[in-house]
Structures are given as structure tokens and as C-alpha cells.
Amino acid sequence: MLHIASVLWFLAGVCKRRLLTWELPRAGSTGLTRKAADRGLANLEAAGLVAVDRRRGRGAVVTLLGLSRTEAVDKNIIRT
């Protein structure tokens, strides 16, 4: 989960936007397998850090969601 999160937040910074398209070739170029990338996206989505619109035959559209520090602590994403 940390690997894909790092890649997504890096891409968001480079592209200067919070809405990204995640495609399978990108997963391979980052050292992730498709299964690991899908699992990481699902975990990030369950944690409330991203919203994912999965489209058959096309790249998933990932929206990075903002969390306040309090919400991040409540979800055990960061420690105080």
C-alpha cells in the first residue's frame, strides 16, 4: 500500500492535480504487479485516502482525498 501511495502522491505533485488515471503499464514501470497495485488501491480506498472509479478495459480514475490530521490519527494512518 505504501508503494502505490507514494507513486500516486508523487504523480499528483508532478501533475499538480488530485485526479489521476492509473493504467497497468504504469504499475509495471513502478515495480508493482497488477495484483499488488489493485490491492494497494483497494486498501487506500478502504482507508478513505482515495476514491477509485474502475472502468473495464481502461485505466482506473483515482482521486486523492484530503484528510485532516485528526482524521488520519483516528484511522491509524499516522501516530501522534
Describe the protein's architecture and organization.
The chain has four helices and three strands; from the N terminus they run αβααββα. It is of the alpha+beta class and 80 residues long. It has a single domain, classed as Orthogonal Bundle (Arc Repressor Mutant, subunit A), CATH 1.10.10.10. Strands 1-3-2 form a three-stranded antiparallel sheet. Helix 1 (2-15) crosses helix 3 (34-46). The longest helix is centred in the N-terminal third of the chain and has 14 residues, at 2-15. The chain is globular, with a radius of gyration of 13 Å. The model has no long low-confidence stretch (mean pLDDT 80).
Secondary-structure topology with pairs:
Elements: H1 2-15, E1 19-22, H2 24-29, H3 34-46, E2 50-53, E3 60-64, H4 69-74
Antiparallel strand pairs: 1-3, 2-3
Helix pairs in contact: 1-3
Record keyword descriptors for this entry.
80 residues, Arc Repressor Mutant, subunit A, globular
Q: What's the architecture, going by CATH?
A: Orthogonal Bundle
Order of strands across the biggest sheet? 1-3-2
Strand content: 15-25%
In terms of structural class, how would the helical and strand content be classed?
alpha+beta
The tally of domains stands at 1
Low-confidence stretches: none
Mean pLDDT figure: 80
The best one-word shape is: globular
* Number of H/I helices: 4
**Rg measurement, Å:** 13 Å
Give the termini distance in whole angstroms. 21 Å
In a few lines, what is going on in this structure?
The protein has a single domain, classed as Orthogonal Bundle (Arc Repressor Mutant, subunit A). By secondary structure, the protein is an alpha+beta fold.
